[in-house]
Each structure stands twice: as structure tokens, then as C-alpha cells.
Amino acid sequence: MGNLFCCVQVDQSTVAVKERFGKFDDVLQPGCHCLPWILGSRLVGHLSLRVQQLDVRCETKTKDNVFVTVVASVQYRALANQASDAFYKLSNTEGQIQAYVFDALTFSLDRFSHKSKCSKTRFDDVFEQKNEIAKAVEGELEKAMSTYGYEIVQTLIVDIEPDVHVKRAMNEINAAARLRVAANEKAEAGKILQIKRAEGEAESKYLAGLGVARQRRAIVDGLRDSVLGFSENVPGTSAKDVMDMVLVTQYFDTMKDIGAASKSSAVFIPHGPGAVRDVASQIREGLLQASSVS
User: Fold this and answer.
1) Are 137 and 72 in contact (CB under 8 A)?
2) Residue 135 in contact with residue 156, Cβ under 8 Å?
3) Interval 270-287: pLDDT, tens
4) Which residues contact 130 (CB under 8 A, 6 or more apart)?
5) Which of 38, 45, 55 is nearest to 83 (CA)?
6) Exposed, middle or buried, 188 (CB in 10 Å: 0-12/13-18/19+)?
7) How far apart are CA 154 and CA 46, in angstroms?
8) How far apart are alpha carbons 89 and 7 in whole angstroms?
9) Contact in structure between 266 and 258 (CB atoms under 8 Å)
10) Segment holding 28, helix H or strand E
11) Residue 70 and residue 267: Cα distance in Å, rounded?
12) Helix (H, G, I), strand (E, B) or coil at 70
């Protein structure tokens, strides 16, 4: 109906290409236009000015001969002031962009190797230099597509996928490295535990030695005070008599402690009133021998 009354409508974010007798005449902006077909004018097509996206998936080889699959997402749009170039110069826009992405990411001939961005990068550095690779590809596309009336809005490297065997090897390398770190940390923790345990035992033995020394000092002081007090209060007694009495008292205290404890380990020795004298004589003999040796 619109062609019948020589009127056409161009939608928003779209331009239309007008020809007259088969020759390009004008680019029609959004709105309503008069198109007198009887004068040879006709509408040959529309061109969208919206941003479009093309995902390009290609396989390339890194500098260390590792094959990876790179997925590049290219966002582009036609320029309104170059609509005629975008409409007439390219017959397959997506195919042309895909070819330029392939050329920027990979190389098939030696004379194009200077354009390859992945082929000069080692596999371990591809992931870290993803943004640089995307900018390099975008620069190549911008220079190539600007002559055809298209603007490259942005280029993103959305995925880098190595070969399945390479991926498995990478995972094993990372797992081994993490296990090595974990083993070192575990060994270091065990070392710290052993050091702390040894320090604790040394401190415990030191404190135990101080306790024993203080205990013996207290015993010696108590015995000395007992001997002096007994000698003063009981005339005619000697130090030997006092020591015998102290030994008898300690002996019976020991027997009492052994008998009171239900789960104590007992050592059986000859005992009785006569055995106390033997024990006292043995202690005195030991003391005298130690004094003579010293």
C-alpha cells in the first residue's frame, strides 16, 4: 500500500537505501519518505544501526606449541554517515569480521605471522594477557572495517580453552604444586609442635627440679630444726638419737601412705622394729661413706 501511494516508512535505528534506475541515490533516515516509483525510485534495502554481536570461535597455537580454542566476542555497528559503504561494499559482514578475527589471532602464512597475537605468547601467559590480546584484535578489526562503514565498538576474549589433555596436565601440575605446599606446611607445623613440646618438657623438668630442690632444702631445714629443738628440750640426747627417731617417724609415715592408697604400687622391704635400726644404720653408713669419699 505504501509503494502504491509512493510513501515508505523507515523505522527508528534503521536507515534505508534508495536507488534510482538501479543507481544509488540516497540514504533515507527514520521516518516517512516519498518514493515516486514512476520516476525510477525504489527502496533496495534496510541497514540496522544497532550494536550487533558476533561470537567467533577459532583454534590457534601458542608460542610453546599448545593448541587453544579462543572465543572472541565482537560488538559492531554500521555508521549512519557511511551507510552506503556498509550496504554496498560487503555482502557478508559477519563472514568478513570472522575472517579478520582469524587473521588477528592466528597465522597460516609466514608473511602474516607479525599479525598473530597468540602465536607470540606462551600458553601460561595467554590468560594473563587476555585484555591485551583483545585490544590487539580490536585494533586490527577497527582498521579493516572502518573502510567498509562499520565501527568496532568492543572486542572481548570471553573464553580460552586449551586441549583436553593440556587441561588435564595443567590440573595435575597445579594439584601437585598445591600438595607440595600443603606437605611443606604440614611438615613445618609438625616441626613447630615438636619444638614447642620439647620446650614444654624442658620447662616442666626445670620446674620439677626446682620443686625437688626446694623440697629437699625444706626437709634438711626441718631436720636441723628438729634436731636442735629436741636436743635443747631433752637433756642428754645426742644427734644420733634424734636422727634415729626422725627416721622411725618417716618410716611409719611412709607405711601409712602406702596403706592408705588403694591403687599405689608398693615395694616390699623387711620391716619391723629391728629393721628400722638396720635402715638407719644403712643411711648413716651411706652418709659417712659419701663424706669420706668427698
Assistant:
1) yes
2) no
3) 666 666 666 667 666 654
4) 157, 160
5) 45
6) exposed
7) 24
8) 27
9) yes
10) strand 23-28
11) 85
12) strand
Which amino acid is residue 227, in one-letter code? V
Quick one: cell of 251?
A: 618410716
Size of the chain in residues: 294
**In this structure, are residues 54 and 74 in contact, taking their beta carbons and an 8 Å threshold?**
yes
Write down the pTM of the prediction: 0.51
Dihedral in degrees, nearest 10, Cα atoms 53, 55, 61, 62 = 50
Name the one residue in this structure whose C-alpha cell is 634436731: 227
| CA atoms of 245 and 247, how far apart (whole Å) | 5
Dihedral sign computed on CA atoms, order 79, 81, 86, 89: negative
- Which strands, in side-by-side order, build the sheet including 67-78? 52-61, 67-78, 150-162
Q: pLDDT digit string (tens) for 237-271?
A: 666 666 666 666 776 777 777 777 666 665 656 66
Q: How confident is the model at residue 1 (pLDDT cuts 50, 70, 90)?
A: very low
b/e map of 136-173 (b: 16 or more CB within 10 Å)? Answer: bbbebbbebbeebbbbbeebbbeebebeeeeeeeeeee
- Residue 141: half-sphere exposure toward Cβ, Cα within 13 Å: 32
